[in-house]
Amino acid sequence: MTDVASSGPEPDDNRPELTNRQGHAVFDNQNQRTVGARGPATLENYQFLEKISHFDRERIPERVVHARGVTTYGYFEAYGKWGDEPISRYTRAKLFQEAGKRTDVAVRFSTVIGGRDSSESARDPRGFAVKFYTEDGNWDLVGNNLGVFFIRDAIKFPDVIHALKPDPVSHEQKPGRIFDFMSQTPESMHMLVNLFSPRGIPADYRHMQGFGVNTYKWVNAEGESVLVKYHWLPKQGVRSMTAEDAANVQAKDLGHATKDLYDAIQRGDHPEWELVVQMMSDDEHPELDFDPLDDTKTWPEQEFPPKPVGRMVLNRVPENYFAENEQASFGTGVLVDGLDFSDDKMLVGRTFSYSDTQRYRVGPNYLQLPVNQAKNAHVATNQRDGQMAYDNGHHGSNPEVNYEPSITGGLREAQYPTHDEQGPEIRGRLTRKRIPRTNDYLQAGQRYLLMEGWEQDDLVTNLVDQLSQCPRAVQERMVWHFLLVENDLGLRVGDGLGISPKDVAGLEPLAGQDLSEDDRKRLARLG
Ligand code: HEM
């Protein structure tokens, strides 16, 4: 006698039938096959084993940073000019050339430190990653909302992230760990002044700026290069939350920013950003008090006026969050002809890190997935096979000649667009040195002075709140740094912690720390 647990479909049930991935009909999705109703299960239980083992593999590793995020789609529309000049004078990148030319984009906004389901109202930088699907292949511009970064050399990245991430034992994010590291990292001051101001908690993703942060290059048809920085300015305006606002949002909803973005796009209120670019000649700029390759610095707008080069509109949400957001892979090495790297020491490290992590996180064939494919370009490589390779239309179509060069067939090299050399000649001995002109405090102080009164108050409150949870030695060093950033900031934070300038006057500069003339004068005044 058969024990039919599942009674089968009603005669008028028109829903499609359940199958497994092999296309076999599933007659019973409630009971495994066993020897008798109470008997042991057998290993040939294919349907059950497939179901469970696929479930066991549902998760891929989340991103080591920027795990919580949301991808949406839209287009970039070029203005064709840089200020009053044709853009071709500075870059030959095709997507920028013609006014009105549109390029498809995928944009992923994210927080940095929390896990995949963490709060979107955390005080944390926000990621702003744009993938342009151009006719020359993909270009990724992978930036943040604060314009600068904590460190300037990629070798420090795992340390800064370990300090910011929750304690590996208790899983709490601890100010003591964060400021322990920052107190020994003077280049972080500019970022900290931004992060602990209201800008550190954007109201949502639509109301924040984006910045490429690192310095890149543009190259024109003559092979002439310039240094550039990219900025996205939201047409919606910039809105932020205080810690109190954020606590209220977080109490009810951990994903308010994703929801806000989806809702806006779905009701036809398409968010828009203008892309503006700052530019300087491709050299060391000894006249500046900072190095143009230092990502802890912004470029003064009076000297390097930001010029609009296009706009971006987001008008579509993904159909499959996992395929289009979790598997989306952005990287700073993904550039098209006419755009290039600079020698920014963060940029080179980032460029290795992104595709390295994606080969591990998503798999070696991550570029075959629809969201990552160069869908508007001609793609033909001699790469073959590997785990989960499926795009054999492109990659297996000429199996006999899957190498190059060949006189019998296969693929040929493309013609170099114009020049294969560009940029200034670089000479130097191999060394491990920080860049000169570190000037860690000046711009942080200028940023503080540019803030409105309520923003300064918020910054001081947030810093005092966090630092009061730190050991005394960390508090003192941070007050010492803030006094060098801007006297008023140092005095106010010190006041909140019960630390006076006299208490920290005896502290020596950190080992190897570079102080400017101005920093030394400020130090001398402490005692
Ligand atoms: C994501 C490394 C600095 C913006 C990531 C990921 C890694 C990484 C491993 C995860 C990528 C993935 O799993 O797909 C690094 C290293 C850095 C660095 C080594 C410094 C040396 C920065 C800076 C910015 C930034 C300075 C901002 C300008 C982002 C963004 C994402 C990201 C936006 C998320 C991309 C996405 O949405 O998938 N980074 N990062 N990173 N990083 Fe960085």
Largest sheet: 10 strands, antiparallel
Q: Helix segment count?
A: 15
Task: Provide the succession of SSEs.
Answer: HEEEEEEHHHEEEHHEEHEHHHHHHHH
Low-confidence stretches: 1-5
Q: What Rg, in angstroms, do the CA atoms define?
A: 27 Å
Head-to-tail CA distance between termini: 95 Å
Mean pLDDT, all residues = 94
Sum up the overall morphology in one term: globular
Proportion in helices: 25-40%
Bound molecules: protoporphyrin IX containing FE
Count all strands and give the number.
12
**Structural class from helices and strands?**
alpha+beta
β-strand percent reads 15-25%
Question: What is the quaternary state of this protein?
Answer: single chain
Short description:
This protein has 15 helices and twelve strands. It has 527 residues and is of the alpha+beta class. The radius of gyration is 27 Å and the shape is globular.
Protein architecture, described:
The structure is a single chain. The chain has 527 residues and is an alpha+beta fold. Helix content is 28%, strand content 15%. It has 15 helices and 12 strands. The protein has helices at residues 46-56, 157-164, 175-183, 189-195, 243-252, 256-266, 321-326, 345-361, 392-395, 442-450, 453-467, 472-485, 487-497, 501-504, 517-526; strands at residues 69-78, 81-82, 85-86, 102-111, 126-134, 137-144, 210-211, 216-219, 225-234, 272-281, 307-316, 339-341. Strands 1, 4, 5, 6, 7, 8, 9, 10, 11 and 12 form a 10-stranded antiparallel beta sheet that branches. Strand 5 (126-134) and strand 6 form a beta hairpin. The protein is globular. The N and C termini lie far apart (95 Å). The model is unreliable at 1-5 (pLDDT under 50). Bound molecules: protoporphyrin IX containing FE. Residues 63-66, 69, 108, 110, 127, 129, 142-144, 149, 154, 157, 213, 295, 328-330, 346, 349-350, 353-354, 357-358, 361 line the site of protoporphyrin IX containing FE. GO terms for molecular function: catalase activity; heme binding; metal ion binding. Belongs to the catalase family.
